[in-house]
Amino acid sequence: xxxxxxxxxxxxxxxxxxxxxxxxxxxxxxxxxxxxxxxxxxxxxxxxxxxxxxxxxxxxxxxxxxxxxxxxxxxxxxxxxxxxxxxxxxxxxxxxxxxxxxxxxxxxxxxxxxxxxxxxxxxxxxxxxxxxxxxxxxxxxxxxxxxxxxxxxxxxxxxxxxxxxxxxxxxxxxxxxxxxxxxxxxxxxxxxxxxxxxxxxxxxxxxxxxxxxxxxxxxxxxxxxxxxxxxxxxxxxxxxxxxxxxxxxxxxxxxxxxxxxxxxxxxxxxxxxxxxxxxxxxxxxxxxxxxxxxxxxxxxxxxxxxxxxxxxxxxxxxxxxxxxxxxxxxxxxxxxxxxxxxxxxxxxxxxxxxxxxxxxxxxxxxxxxxxxxxxxxxxxxxxxxxxxxxxxxxxxxxxxxxxxxxxxxxxxxxxxxxxxxxxxxxxxxxxxxxxxxxxxxxxxxxxxxxxxxxxxxxxxxxxxxxxxxxxxxxxxxxxxxxxxxxxxxxxxxxxxxxxxxxxxxxxxxxxxxxxxxxxxxxxxxxxxxxxxxxxxxxxxxxxxxxxxxxxxxxxxxxxxxxxxxxxxxxxxxxxx
Length: 576
Fold this sequence. Notes:
It is a single chain. This protein is of the alpha/beta class. About 30% of the residues lie in helices and about 20% in strands. Strands 2, 3, 4, 5, 6, 19, 20, 21 and 22 form a 9-stranded mixed β-sheet that branches. A 6-stranded parallel β-sheet has the order 10-11-12-13-14-18, sandwiched between helices. A 3-stranded parallel β-sheet has the order 7-8-9, with no helix packed on it. The longest helix has 16 residues, at about 190-205. Mean pLDDT is about 90; it is low at about 1-30.
């Protein structure tokens, strides 16, 4: 059995790699002579080393899973030789926020991610894979979870194999679910908080990247109208206390903000406060100003991040390059209706006495928030059904407004009926962001990238958000080459060394000797996403080779059948 991979840090690297990491990022490439053939030799590439420095021409030799040499390697031999023909060679891309927890157990190839150059993805937001009770039954994709701990999940992942590497957070929402029961809408007691902290410590010792909390999900409470955080759940103080545990093990606190709309800046301030009080780095997932009334709020939110950094808070964020988002339809249901879990929620949706209130609250939420600035559609007409377990041909790809008109229903009554009919397993894509706001975020130097999507294959079906297939090539093709929103060097830095540094992966994310050989070869003149909202199951163009841990997984645009990926363990792994 393969042993867990730990992030060794600078002192776990070779002396050469450590010297290069600690030295000037733009220093010339160093040539290391090999005594035996390389496993892979990439000739005639333009190297983008991930630091943001300009590209340089070089050959790259890979041996024993690591980058062995960078420079003029004329005369060297290798088991596999790749002629880059002047294409760009960069470190593998790191997806800062993904939902591939169970899909990778169905199909470890993770095609939608590996084909866009993603060599590491970070999972765990929402319902994280651990800790779990043995009788929890919430599998997807036909997967029945047979583990209760993060180590158990990693063992199963190793047994099935993956194309790319995987890191995982422990979710504060999952801790609440484990300790307090599903759908709990109350404060944690002192004893329950201590249980959560103990479970968090266990997760960090097993290799978690840190703590994550999806604060806008039904299991939490957003900012009350008066903005009093003491009324919110989980409380900021609880998150600080659990984050302190993660901090002791070198972890990070990641968050879906409590509010991305009216209280957008307050959400950023809360995240910064948690980082400041817990002494932990903070990562904000998919930074966005959500909802038409909030268009234009990205600038003050970014300013709030920069102000926090100026006073010493290690806070940054990531984005995906689209103006539509995706989540379960259940998020549209008022939070009070989720108390006690799915079964009780569905009973409430069917209760004639409660339906008028539910319908009114869903109407207010959706008509206020959703707007497609490309078409002018709003409310239910700006929301597309992306997946249902039953009768997909009847619903998938249509807007909620279209379906309601077909059935002669009010669209917000339809939300309740569809949730009941499909047993609360409806996925939607909804438009509610501004291109101007998103581009502003793309230009910020502290912003990395995430797909907020699932590693899938063409056989998965449904009509998911195109970010599953296109996030990283869309940045490189549309926003770098076509729109010139940011430079190629900086875009690659924010796909590689920046996220690696945020996650403590000091032996990945930079193309230098001694680093793990996660590499992507792409044509900067051709790379582009092909996935669309109408036809999302399309792989990108312009990415010819992807190497993971020194093994070629994608060769000439085709999957090689190799599954060399592995769990990457956080800095607390194995510590007492």
